[in-house]
Design a protein that fits this description.
The chain has 68 residues and is α+β, with helices and mostly antiparallel strands. The protein has one helix and five strands. The radius of gyration is 12 Å and the shape is globular. The termini are far apart.
């Protein structure tokens, strides 16, 4: 999926990090979400899945962007 087809809900570059190097939440054209963040080693996820750790403020920002 091309990045251009995603709706970025967080991290506009005016916050705690730069444009592409921090935790972010994206919405896909299918209505699903992609999360960009630091890889977590809390446990081994199932094959084909991954864990990322993002700060609470990033989720709050995404919820505000969606009007939740």
């Amino acid at each position: 999926m091309a990045r251009e087809k995603l709706t970025r809900l967080t991290g506009d570059g005016n916050g705690e990090c730069g444009e592409d190097d921090c935790s972010n939440v994206y919405r896909t054209e299918r209505g699903t979400f992609l999360v960009q963040g630091d890889v977590s080693a809390a446990f081994a996820p199932p094959r084909g899945e991954g864990l990322v750790e993002i700060p609470e403020h990033v989720l709050r920002e995404a919820f505000r962007a969606l009007g939740w």
